[in-house]
């Protein structure tokens, strides 16, 4: 029998530490080995027994979570799950934590933990288990950006690229989108992320990338040079109107436990774009997107999955490959070039 996942909680609220400890220890596969009110106390306690996963708040006394995270990644890389308050300011800080090397976000309410316990318990446990399996090397080794492509691309303007990703995807998306020039195919993205965090994530990518990156709004047009990221807590579908594509942002039940769901996006791209699309599934836990990517391939799209060596969690790509959905298996560093220049493999 496998040993339980050892978790250490760092949060300045004693109530939060108690609640999270009780929530996690309901699962026999998880053991909370300790907790601390700030990173300095945490370092002292963890020296006696290092955890497999650290749960970290970002706003704490003496040393903030971002500073601690950067120090941790430089000295002793360890999977970190950020547990952050649902506020606009907190969202920006939390996204900065993801870019510093955290593997996942769990949103906690600013007031009251009752709803958190009821609604988020399973998601929190799954995030801890995904983090325990995370491979830290891809997070710490990002590929260099590609040189700018010529303004006139070989692809037509009605091409659509759909990307789905989850755990480890924030840095993977930064690597891919940051390597693209200002003129690139229109891109639609589902990154599993809680509500309120996707706007801050999109804004950060927009500052870093040459193409335009924004959180999608209902009716936004998909056009060259624009990347639309599905808002947390809402599904996103691709629709076609004449020769143009736009997105529909809508509510609905979770699909494969996620909202937004990669499968929802990919299936809509298969219906609306067919051979004019490319589908790419990247690092993440579970199987969301595998069936949708298969539908895209069956509709004539070029399909690709990120390879195991460059994934933080080789779950979603592995499932897509196993189901025959991915024509190409690519290292992270080759995905941007494939988006730009395209590749249609010979069908078996």
From TrEMBL:
Catalysed conversion reaction: L-glutaminyl-[protein] + H2O = L-glutamyl-[protein] + NH4(+); [protein]-L-glutamate 5-O-methyl ester + H2O = L-glutamyl-[protein] + methanol + H(+)
Every CheB-type methylesterase domain range: 154-340
Active-site residue list: 166, 192, 288
Pfam families given in the database record: CheB_methylest, Response_reg
PTM per Swiss-Prot/TrEMBL: Phosphorylated by CheA. Phosphorylation of the N-terminal regulatory domain activates the methylesterase activity.
SMART domains: REC
Residue numbers carrying 4-aspartylphosphate: 57
Domain of life: Bacteria
PROSITE patterns linked: CHEB, RESPONSE_REGULATORY
EC number(s) per entry: 3.1.1.61, 3.5.1.44
Coiled coil (UniProt feature): none
One function term, GO molecular function aspect: protein-glutamate methylesterase activity
Keywords: Chemotaxis, Cytoplasm, Hydrolase, Phosphoprotein
Compartment(s): Cytoplasm
InterPro entries assigned to the protein according to its UniProt record, in alphabetical order: CheB-like, CheB_C, CheY-like_superfamily, Sig_transdc_resp-reg_Me-estase, Sig_transdc_resp-reg_receiver
Segments forming domain Response regulatory: 6-123
NCBIfam families in the cross-refs: PRK00742.1 (NF001965), PRK12555.1 (NF009206)
Its biological purpose: Involved in chemotaxis. Part of a chemotaxis signal transduction system that modulates chemotaxis in response to various stimuli. Catalyzes the demethylation of specific methylglutamate residues introduced into the chemoreceptors (methyl-accepting chemotaxis proteins or MCP) by CheR. Also mediates the irreversible deamidation of specific glutamine residues to glutamic acid.
Domain notes per entry: Contains a C-terminal catalytic domain, and an N-terminal region which modulates catalytic activity.
Family indicated by similarity: Belongs to the CheB family.
Protein name as catalogued: Protein-glutamate methylesterase/protein-glutamine glutaminase
Organism: Azotobacter bryophylli
């Amino acid at each position: 029998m496998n040993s339980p996942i050892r978790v250490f909680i760092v949060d300045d609220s004693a109530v939060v530490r108690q609640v999270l400890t009780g929530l996690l220890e309901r699962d026999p596969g998880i053991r909370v080995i300790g907790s601390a009110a700030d990173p300095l106390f945490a370092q002292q306690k963890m020296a006696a027994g290092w955890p497999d996963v650290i749960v970290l708040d970002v706003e704490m006394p003496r040393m903030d979570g971002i500073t601690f995270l950067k120090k941790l990644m430089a000295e002793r890389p360890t999977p970190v799950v950020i547990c952050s308050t649902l506020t606009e300011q907190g969202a920006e800080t939390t996204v900065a934590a993801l870019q510093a090397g955290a593997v996942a976000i769990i949103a906690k309410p600013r007031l009251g933990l009752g709803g958190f316990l009821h609604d988020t318990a399973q998601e929190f446990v799954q995030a801890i288990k995904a983090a325990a399996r995370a491979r830290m090397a891809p997070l710490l080794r990002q590929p260099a950006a590609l040189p700018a492509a010529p303004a006139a691309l070989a692809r037509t303007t009605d091409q659509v690229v759909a990307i789905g990703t989850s755990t480890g995807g924030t840095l993977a998306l930064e690597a891919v989108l940051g390597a693209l020039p200002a003129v690139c195919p229109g891109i639609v993205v589902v990154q599993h992320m809680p509500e309120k965090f996707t706007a801050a994530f999109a804004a950060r990518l927009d500052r870093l990338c040459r193409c335009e990156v924004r959180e999608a709004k209902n009716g936004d047009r998909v056009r060259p040079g624009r990347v639309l990221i599905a808002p947390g807590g809402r599904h996103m579908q691709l629709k076609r109107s004449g020769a143009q594509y736009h997105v529909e942002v809508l509510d609905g039940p979770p699909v494969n436990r996620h909202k937004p769901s990669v499968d929802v996006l990919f299936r809509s791209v298969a219906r609306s774009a067919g051979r004019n699309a490319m589908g790419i599934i990247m690092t993440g836990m579970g199987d969301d997107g595998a069936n949708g990517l298969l539908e895209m391939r069956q509709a004539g799209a070029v399909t690709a999955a990120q390879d195991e060596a460059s994934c933080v969690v080789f779950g979603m790509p592995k499932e897509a490959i196993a189901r025959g959905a991915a024509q190409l298996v690519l290292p992270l560093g080759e995905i941007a070039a494939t988006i730009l220049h395209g590749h249609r493999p010979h069908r078996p």
